[in-house]
């Protein structure tokens, strides 16, 4: 995985079935820890789940239009990591527009990554706020297609 790439093909989950935010964070954390080597950091899925839930207590990361951008800082990691999931069934997420969420990007950053954390969050947010991108993600047939859509660079065109 290149250092400048936020998304990794193995960390894109297609049609994930979950019943709650906690279940969602558990599945995403388990995926991340299964796929990536955190260089012997002592991180368990519960650490990620607890950090994400703690952030949610400050206010929902459901940003509207069916998108959530949960994020947390974790001791023991060296850079920002992202797990993306398209949910099989939209989840009540207490989003700002009260719509259920079906597109979720969980960002994890080192505890001292201030600027990098914010830049990554902004980059993912810019990608997912485009209605055409969200529609393409929702109609993608598989995880590889989702990954391709998430990593393609698109230039804005004037209407």
Strand content: 15-25%
Give the integer mean of the pLDDT values. Answer: 90
Radius of gyration based on Cα positions: 15 Å
Please tell me what the overall shape is.
Answer: globular
Q: Features of this protein?
A:
Mannitol-specific EII, Chain A; 5 helices; 159 residues; 6 strands; alpha/beta; six-stranded mixed sheet; disordered C terminus
Structure report:
With 159 residues, the chain is α/β, with parallel strands linked by helices. The protein has one domain: Mannitol-specific EII, Chain A (3-Layer(aba) Sandwich), CATH 3.40.930. The chain contains 5 helices and 6 strands. The protein is globular, with a radius of gyration of 15 Å.
List the helices and strands and how they pair.
Blueprint: E1 12-16, H1 21-35, H2 45-58, E2 62-64, E3 67-68, E4 71-74, E5 81-91, E6 101-110, H3 114-128, H4 131-139, H5 143-151
Parallel strand pairs: 1-5, 3-6, 4-6
Antiparallel strand pairs: 2-3, 5-6
Helix pairs in contact: 1-2
């Amino acid at each position: 995985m290149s250092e400048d790439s936020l998304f990794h093909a193995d960390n894109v989950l297609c049609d994930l079935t979950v019943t709650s935010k906690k279940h969602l964070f558990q599945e995403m954390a388990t995926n991340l820890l299964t796929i990536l080597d955190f260089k012997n950091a002592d991180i368990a899925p519960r650490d990620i789940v607890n950090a994400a839930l703690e952030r949610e207590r400050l206010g929902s990361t459901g940003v509207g239009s069916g998108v959530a951008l949960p994020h947390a800082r974790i001791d023991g990691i060296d850079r920002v990591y992202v797990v993306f999931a398209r949910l099989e069934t939209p989840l009540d997420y207490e989003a700002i527009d009260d719509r259920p969420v079906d597109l979720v990007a969980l960002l994890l950053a080192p505890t001292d990554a201030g600027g990098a954390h914010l830049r990554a969050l902004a980059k993912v947010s810019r990608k997912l706020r485009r209605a055409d991108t969200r529609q393409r993600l929702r109609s993608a047939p598989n995880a590889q297609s989702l990954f391709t859509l998430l990593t393609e660079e698109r230039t804005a065109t004037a209407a």
